[in-house]
Design goal:
Blueprint (H helix, E strand, L loop, with lengths): L1 E5 L6 H6 L3 E2 L7 E3 L3 E5 L4 H14 L6 E10 L9 E3 L2 E5 L4 E7 L7 E5 L6 H8 L4 E3 L2 H10 L3 E10 L6 H29 L12 H6 L8 H17 L4 H15 L5 H16 L1 H13 L1 H5 L3 E4 L8 E4 L5 H13 L2 H8 L8
Length: 356
């Protein structure tokens, strides 16, 4: 069964009109069901969307096989106008203090990315800032996609452009136009369902020669359990975005092995390979890491070993330095004086200068 998640009942109005939905007795209101789907209305904002989606997935995880967020979004680009419909490729998030660099990729082969804002976009300046990261902005998708990722459930998102993200009275606009917008969303969803139904079922054959199996059984690689999960996720994302072919993936692996085979263990080679693929999947993360390394230059030049969270989820740096004499101590003191941690904080807050 599918779980369709909406922020507001107005967005789901056409679904209620067309389907025979009955309320589900649950811990909170807003959950409905018919013979094919669950329908959940969470209320506006990432917090409610996250909590309620996680709760429903936890309770009905044995029934739900697909998660779809349906609703409105604001346009951040001139290529999308009010009334346009878009299936989303990837979702990002921006809260009041920092950017959430962890992204979630859907199965949809589009070029539209969405950023979830933790507060309403109230000005053209806010819109300009967010436009550096995505094409549209909403208030819920990233949290819903995060819940789907947690439960390993395939997630999609269908968005209708309701405004230009900085409309003065967006709430009134959405309320007035809700019936028409909901109908448009319903018709697009019907097309999606028809397309799925038109695909003839095929006998499931477990392949032993998939690209993932190729790397898992490669004699030069050793993947830990967590690395296996990451490999599966990254390979799926690269396939969906059509960034590299299987032939290219094997070539990348061979180049890494040839460059490091004499000095790296199989586990270390796997880590290097995964980092390379992750950077290809999320080039924005590569730019962020480059900026961080530039800011760390005074420490690195002093001979210190400096690291930071490779997933960019935690805001910290770790410094290791051997002090063997007073000269080493003075070198470290000078490096710390030249190092500006505020630059690191600015980068984690999403300020990448003119490189984005």
């Amino acid at each position: 069964m599918k779980l369709l998640v909406f922020a507001h009942r107005g967005e789901a109005q056409a679904f209620f009109n067309e389907w025979e939905l009955v309320p589900v007795e649950y811990y909170f209101t807003g959950l409905f069901k018919n013979k094919n789907s669950y329908l959940l209305t969470t209320g506006e904002g990432p917090k409610d969307a996250s909590e309620k989606t996680v709760a429903v997935l936890s309770s009905f995880k044995n029934e739900i096989t697909e998660l779809i967020n349906i609703g409105i979004a604001g346009s951040l680009t001139s290529k999308l106008s009010v009334g346009d419909i878009a299936w989303v490729r990837s979702s990002y998030a921006q809260n009041a203090e920092r950017s959430e660099f962890k992204s979630y990729t859907t199965k949809n082969h589009t070029n539209i990315d969405c950023i979830t804002a933790f507060s309403r976009v109230a000005s053209k300046e806010d819109r300009k800032t967010l436009s550096a990261f995505a094409d549209i902005v909403d208030r819920e998708l990233w949290s819903i996609a995060s819940a789907g990722h947690l439960f390993k459930i395939e997630t999609s998102a269908l968005k209708l452009i309701s405004d230009n993200a900085d409309s003065v009275d967006m709430c009134k606009l959405v309320k007035d136009e809700a019936p028409a917008m909901s109908k448009k969303l319903f018709l697009e969803f019907q097309k999606y369902e028809s397309k799925i139904a038109a695909v003839k079922p095929v006998k499931l054959v477990v392949k032993t020669d998939s690209i993932e199996d190729y790397f898992l059984h490669h004699p030069k690689f050793y993947f830990t359990t967590s690395q296996m999960r990451k490999l599966s996720t990254v390979l799926r994302g690269l396939s969906l975005k059509k960034i590299v072919s299987d032939v290219d993936l094997k070539k990348i692996a061979n180049e890494i092995i040839e460059a490091n085979a004499n000095e790296k263990t199989s586990k270390e080679l796997s880590k290097i390979f995964l980092n390379d693929l992750s950077e290809r999947l999320n080039p924005l993360n590569t730019k962020i890491k480059e900026k961080i390394n530039q800011s760390l230059k005074p420490l690195l030049d002093s001979g210190a070993s400096v690291s930071f969270d490779p997933e960019l989820e935690q805001e910290y740096i770790q410094i290791n330095y051997q002090v063997r004499n007073t000269k080493d101590q003075k070198r470290l003191q000078l490096a710390l004086e030249q190092f500006n941690y505020q630059k690191i904080k600015d980068i984690f807050a999403g300020n990448l200068g003119n490189d984005v």
